[in-house]
């Protein structure tokens, strides 16, 4: 990541010197994403905010809402869930105004994940269940919905998800890990943890 960050920072400084808000925003988003991957949460938040402010100056509504989403997600990844929840209504308003169902579902999925983070799995279930597709193992919310079921004690629903899906295709293995750990199936829990690390997902809030 070091060389990538170096090149991005060079691009960022050049975009600032040229007063190019669009490229300042785009590059800052990439820098924030890189810091998220390396779990440098403060810098991820800093550059997500720089990106958002730059996109606001462009006036492009799509870029504004996408960068605001990234800004809130950076707080979620930093486990600063209280701030993420305060910003969520503004993000949802942007989503509704966009008339983009994919973007709206992404917002709701992020909201559900944040509710899990603050220890409100029942509320998270209400948010995530409408997004759940029982025939799509790649659906992003599966692992988080599974985690919400486990954390709420609804092992019947959790077991249904485990049984209905190819777990190798699930993009988030935190719920799988928690389910198997709770059932004392430690070998399977370890495999889920290894798979999560392999995917490079830095959301480790599910390790208990």
Helix % is over 70%
Radius of gyration: 18 Å
Q: What general form does the structure show? A: globular
How do the SSEs run, as a string of H and E? HHHHHHHHHHH
Biggest sheet descriptor: none
Low-confidence stretches: 204-208
Estimated structural class:
mainly alpha
The overall average pLDDT, rounded, is 89
Number of helices: 11
Strand content: under 5%
Distance between the termini: 29 Å
Number of strands: 0
Polypeptide structure, described:
By secondary structure, the chain is mainly alpha-helical. It is 75% helix and 0% strand. It has eleven helices and no strands. The chain has helices spanning 2-17, 21-37, 41-58, 61-77, 81-98, 101-117, 121-128, 142-152, 155-164, 174-182, 186-199. Helix 6 (101-117) packs antiparallel against helix 7 (121-128). The longest helix has 18 residues, at 41-58. The protein starts with a helix and ends in a 9-residue tail after the last helix. 38% of the residues are buried.
């Amino acid at each position: 990541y070091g060389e990538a960050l170096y090149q991005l920072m060079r691009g960022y400084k050049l975009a600032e010197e040229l007063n190019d808000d669009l490229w300042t925003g785009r590059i800052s988003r990439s820098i924030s994403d890189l810091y998220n991957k390396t779990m440098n949460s403060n810098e991820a938040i800093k550059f997500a905010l720089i990106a958002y402010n730059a996109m606001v100056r462009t006036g492009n509504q799509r870029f504004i809402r996408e960068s605001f989403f990234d800004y809130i997600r950076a707080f979620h990844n930093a486990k600063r869930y209280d701030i993420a929840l305060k910003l969520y209504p503004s993000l949802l308003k942007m989503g509704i105004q966009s008339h983009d169902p994919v973007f709206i579902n992404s917002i709701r999925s992020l909201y559900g994940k944040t509710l899990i983070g603050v220890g409100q799995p029942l509320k998270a279930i209400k948010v995530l269940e409408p997004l759940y597709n029982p025939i799509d193992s790649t659906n992003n919310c599966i692992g988080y919905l599974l985690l919400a079921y486990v954390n709420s004690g609804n092992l019947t629903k959790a077991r249904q998800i485990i049984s209905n899906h190819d777990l190798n295709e699930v993009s988030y293995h935190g719920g799988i890990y928690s389910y198997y750990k709770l059932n004392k199936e430690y070998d399977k829990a370890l495999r889920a943890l290894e798979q999560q690390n392999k995917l490079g997902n830095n959301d480790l809030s599910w390790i208990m």
